[in-house]
């Protein structure tokens, strides 16, 4: 993600609209039509505004304790019909509960908590993570 980790920052992603445009560009360049957007942690700054702007272009959404959930209202979340798998580790006592508090307003959501996993639950419990993710993908239309 531009501006995170060791990647250089990019002027384009300074604004919410720029982050939506960036993610839209990436998906177009990859030729993705109706992808499932998996969004761990800091990627929430990109995925959440994209979801709110273009949720109808996604087959599904998988937030994993993303940042930025409190930037949107319960009503904004309630308008979305994108099937969502909210995934997090039960040892993530900081960001995960806050994200769940906001994301639970998504009407088409299911929650999976991975026991013994922290914030990066996909690294702590990869088999459980993949089982939950594949189960969600199988039930999508």
Automatic annotation (TrEMBL):
This is ABHEA protein. It comes from Grallaria varia (variegated antpitta). PANTHER family: PROTEIN ABHD14A, PROTEIN ABHD14B-LIKE. It is found in: Cytoplasm. GO terms for cellular component: cytoplasm. Signal peptide: none annotated. Belongs to the AB hydrolase superfamily. ABHD14 family. Keywords: Cytoplasm. It comes from the Eukaryota. Residues 71-126 form the AB hydrolase-1 domain.
């Amino acid at each position: 993600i531009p501006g995170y980790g060791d990647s250089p920052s990019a002027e384009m992603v300074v604004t919410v609209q720029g982050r939506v445009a960036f993610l839209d560009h990436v998906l177009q360049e990859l030729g993705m039509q109706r992808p499932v957007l998996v969004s761990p942690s800091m990627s929430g700054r990109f995925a959440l505004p994209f979801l709110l702007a273009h949720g109808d272009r996604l087959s599904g959404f998988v937030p994993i304790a993303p940042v930025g959930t409190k930037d949107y209202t319960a009503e904004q979340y309630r308008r979305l019909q994108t099937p969502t798998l909210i995934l997090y580790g039960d040892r993530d006592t900081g960001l995960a509960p806050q994200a769940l508090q906001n994301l639970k307003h998504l009407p088409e959501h299911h929650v999976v908590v991975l026991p013994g996993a922290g914030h990066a639950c996909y690294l702590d419990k990869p088999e459980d993570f993949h089982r939950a993710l594949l189960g969600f993908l199988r039930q999508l239309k």
